[in-house]
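User: I'm putting together notes for a lab meeting next week and I want to include a structural view of one of the chains we've been expressing. I don't have a solved structure, so I'd like a prediction I can at least talk through. The sequence is below, exactly as it appears in our construct file.
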Amino acid sequence: MSKVYTTEITSEELVSDNPIHQRLFKAYVASEPHIHGNVLEVGCGEGRGIPVILPRATQYTAVDKIESALAVLRKKYGNSTFISMNIPPFGGLMDNVYDVVLSFQVIEHIDDDLGYLKEIHRVLKPGGTALITTPNRKMSLTRNPWHVREYLAEELTALAARVFPKVTMKGITGNNKVMAYYEENRRSVRRFTRFDILDLQHRLPASVLRIPYELLNRWNRNKLQSTDNKLVSGIHHSDYIVVDDATDALDLFLIVSK
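Assistant: Thanks for the context. Below is the predicted structure for the 258-residue chain, given as C-alpha cells.
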C-alpha cells in the first residue's frame, strides 16, 4: 500500500501512533449499534473502520480525496463503492439514500462546515442517523495547522441544530492510562510552545506551520514511545470511553437524525 500517513493520518503500523490510532478506531466501535442498511462513510482514509462496518451494512459507499488509498481499498473490498472527491458538496450522491452516514475527524478540515452538514442531511433517508467525531478544542494542546477550525461541544451542537431536528452530543475520553499519555504529551508540547512568546502558532498562515508541525509532532510521538513504550503500545480502543458530557472529552461524538 502506498503510504499517505502524516501525523494527521495516523498509522496502525507505527507504534508511536498507537494511542491516536486506537482513539480514532474507538469511534467505529462506539458506532456499531447504529450501523445498519445502506451506509456512507465520508472521509474513509485508508479504511481503518471498514472491518467494523461491513458485517453490519447491506451496502457500503465511501468517499475520500486520497485516490491512491481508494484504489487499494477497491481491490480489497470489491463489493463496496469508493469515490474520490473533495467535499462539500457530495457530487453525484443522490438525496434520501443512506440509512447511516459516518464521518470521523473530517469536519475540522472543511471550510464550509454548514454546507457539509447540509449535504449529510440531504443524502440521509428520513429517519436516518449520522455520526460525526472531531477533536474537542478545549483539550487541544496546540494549534493544528491541518484544521480549519476546532469546536467546543456547545458550538458544534448549535451548528448541527441548524440542520438536524434531533441532535445528541456525547464525548470520547480516556481512562487513567490514556490520560497519563495525554499528560505526558501535554508536558512535552509545552516545552516547545513556551518559546512561542509572540504566539506565532496563531499568527502565521497554516501553510507555513505545517512542515514544522509535522516534524515536531512526529519527533514528540517517537520521544514518548522511547520514554515509555509500554504506555504507548499498551493503549487499546477499550481504554477510550464514551461519555454523555463532552465538556472535557478528548473528542466530540455527535449523533444526529433526519
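A couple of points you could mention at the meeting. The first helix runs from residue 18 to 31. Strands lie at 38-42, 59-64, 81-84, 98-104, 124-135, 166-174, 240-243, 251-257.

User: Perfect, that's what I needed.
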